[in-house]
């Protein structure tokens, strides 16, 4: 379920956070679904349990997940997901990609075409 | 929690560890880095209660370590060279450890057997290779169920499969029993993958001790091409630049600060190219050591 790139410069806890956010956004992890325990994930990925703990803590602080003492961590209900933060981060990324696309000669209609394509493909299989 | 307060250790006139203070939290994996001869092994031996500090205090949960068997029962130290009694097998060594450590778990020793399957219980340890002896020491150490595991260059000499195995075992100890692990190594990649806290030593002093992720968020590598040369000077004045390199029109900077701070300053000038990369531990190590006056000398032979 989780693939980490240990060669990446990005800290592992950030990679984990991004991965889990992605799984939540795409609905692979459903609201109120339980996340793997820190112990299980640590053993599965060979990652320091404190790092996983940290990723879970940050995700909880941002409102993506909630924890129940003694039970574990769960995905927050959809209405409680922090859309503002996601939107802001997405806006930045899009802006950067748009700038590159414009440089490569994409026109406004090309972009619109892509937008429509994304709308139609929504919920389907994603490819990069 | 492990605490060193203004600890010094001197060998004749030479300070191996000088006025060093350090806290290591329970349940963390602490990586100790440093130049050769920085005093890492001396520090580990102070933690393990092998050396008595000349000045200052070394405590585990508030109890002195040196010559205090009640505290030392909870500590296992693996030296950089495996040491066994002459002509012994792992079974005989296990019996010895069992007689020393009250927390020794025979059950754990048996549980771990499949992980160290290449070690024959009846074979003499001194006839085994360095890597297998390493494995044997780790097997014995984990069977003692200590609260504090001190490992001096533990991964060296292990093959990749065993490395992963050992890491997994250590992580389980940390996750399930809150064991504290202190590791020294020169293999920065390994430390980066394993540890959550790191300390960097140089000439008996601790240059820094931080959470690894904080350390990485605190220093960045930036590649930038300005629209105008004058912009560079304007930017330089506002930033804490550790290192700078210019190749053609693209400059590479190592800058202290958060992503937000740094990008805010650069963005004002709308550079042609602007990339901000997190640092690897190796880069951090090299630049921090450079700051302390220890760097690669430009010698050509």
From TrEMBL, chain A:
Keywords noted in UniProt: DNA-binding, Transcription, Transcription regulation
InterPro entries noted in UniProt: Tscrpt_reg_HTH_GntR (IPR000524), WH-like_DNA-bd_sf (IPR036388), WH_DNA-bd_sf (IPR036390)
Every HTH gntR-type domain range: 10-78
Pfam families: GntR
Alphabetized SMART domains for the sequence: HTH_GNTR
Source species, domain of life: Bacteria
Coiled coil spans: none
Transcription regulation is among the record's keywords: yes
Keyword Transcription carried by entry: yes
Protein name: GntR family transcriptional regulator
Provenance organism: Paenibacillus hunanensis
UniProtKB/TrEMBL annotation, chain B:
Organism: Paenibacillus hunanensis
Ranges of residues in domain ABC transporter: 2-228
Matches recorded under PROSITE patterns: ABC_TRANSPORTER_2
Domain of life: Bacteria
PANTHER family documented for this protein: ABC TRANSPORTER ATP-BINDING PROTEIN ALBC-RELATED
GO terms of molecular function: ATP binding
The protein, known as: ABC-2 type transport system ATP-binding protein
Key word Nucleotide-binding present: yes
Family matches, as InterPro entries: AAA+_ATPase, ABC_transporter-like_ATP-bd, ABC_Transporter_VariousFunc, P-loop_NTPase
Keywords carried by this UniProt record: ATP-binding, Nucleotide-binding, Transport
Keyword Acetylation: no
UniProt signal peptide: none
């Amino acid at each position: 379920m989780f693939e980490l790139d240990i060669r990446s410069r990005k800290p592992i806890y950030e990679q984990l956070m991004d991965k889990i956010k992605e799984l939540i956004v795409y609905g692979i992890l459903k609201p109120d679904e339980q996340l793997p325990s820190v112990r299980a994930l640590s053993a599965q990925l060979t990652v320091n349990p404190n790092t996983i703990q940290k990723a879970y803590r940050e995700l909880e602080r941002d409102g993506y997940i909630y924890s129940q003492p003694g039970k574990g961590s769960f995905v927050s209900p959809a209405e409680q997901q922090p859309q503002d933060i996601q939107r802001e981060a997405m806006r930045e990324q899009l802006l950067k990609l748009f700038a590159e696309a414009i440089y490569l000669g994409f026109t406004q209609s090309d972009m619109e075409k892509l937008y429509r394509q994304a709308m139609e493909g929504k919920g389907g299989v994603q490819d990069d | 929690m492990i605490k060193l307060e203004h600890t010094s250790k001197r060998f004749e006139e030479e300070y191996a560890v000088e006025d060093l203070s350090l806290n290591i939290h329970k349940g963390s994996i602490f990586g100790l880095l440093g130049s050769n001869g920085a005093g890492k092994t001396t520090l580990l031996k102070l933690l393990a209660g092998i050396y008595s500090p000349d000045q200052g205090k070394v405590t585990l949960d508030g109890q002195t370590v040196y010559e205090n068997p009640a505290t030392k029962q909870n500590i296992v130290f693996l030296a950089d060279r495996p040491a066994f009694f002459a002509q012994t097998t792992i079974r005989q060594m296990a019996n010895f450890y069992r007689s020393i450590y009250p927390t020794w778990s025979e059950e754990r020793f048996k549980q771990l057997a499949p992980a160290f399957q290449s070690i024959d219980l009846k074979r003499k340890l001194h006839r085994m290779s360095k890597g297998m002896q390493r494995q044997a020491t780790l097997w014995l150490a984990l069977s003692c169920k200590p609260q504090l595991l001190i490992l001096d260059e533990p991964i060296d000499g292990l093959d990749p499969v065993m490395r992963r195995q050992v890491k997994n075992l250590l992580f389980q100890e940390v996750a399930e029993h809150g064991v504290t692990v202190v590791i020294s190594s020169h293999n920065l990649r390994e430390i980066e993958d394993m540890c959550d806290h790191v300390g960097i030593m140089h000439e008996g002093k601790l240059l820094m001790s931080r959470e690894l992720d904080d350390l990485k968020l605190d220093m960045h590598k930036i590649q930038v091409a300005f629209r105008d040369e004058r912009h560079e000077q304007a930017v330089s004045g506002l930033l804490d630049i550790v290192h700078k390199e210019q190749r053609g029109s693209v400059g590479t900077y190592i800058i202290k600060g958060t992503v937000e701070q740094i990008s805010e300053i650069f963005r004002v000038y709308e550079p042609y190219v602007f990339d901000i990369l997190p640092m690897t531990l190796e880069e951090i190590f090299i630049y921090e050591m450079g700051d302390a006056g220890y760097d690669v000398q430009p010698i050509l032979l």
